[in-house]
């Protein structure tokens, strides 16, 4: 019997374990238009999300990212074994409670206000705000790669984009300091920078966004989850 390692079935990677999972998803009635190429991209993520829902996962638990329980169940149907050991990347937890440790959301996603983003005819907040003092650390919410880290965010001020292992891009805005560089690999919980009030900000806070898909553009956002 073939054994699939959970640690190898990750968004953005290409290998035979992913090809095995893709074949199983297709056999279960979840189409992947490009076929079982061995590459874990948006098509495979959508198919895996459909499988998670078929298994009874709901909400944020049906995120299209394999976990031990869902992959083991898929393996039972498709007759492959699963090795769940070392599923998280070395050096940190896979997820953390908040991008600003010990701080909660103080201004919600989609709240009405004098914003340029008008998805329903009203100005809406494109992310979540975490009020905190200047200098408070901000951390990676998931493992991933720094897509950008610069002071060219305009209204966003100093900002960082994190391309996470679930396929989404998370943006950290209004920072006072940045401690990572473009292309750097980071782990969940790793400090990326510090809270500030750069750009268009009335006081120190982290403005935090999540892309709808695998790339970020203004307004192409969803309520942050990880």
From TrEMBL:
Pfam families: Peptidase_M23, PG_binding_1. Residues 15-67 form the Peptidoglycan binding-like domain. One of its GO terms (molecular function) is metalloendopeptidase activity. InterPro entries: Cell_wall_metabolism_enzyme, Dup_hybrid_motif, M23ase_b-sheet_dom, Peptidoglycan-bd-like, PGBD-like_sf, PGBDSf. Residues 124-213 form the M23ase beta-sheet core domain. This is Peptidase.
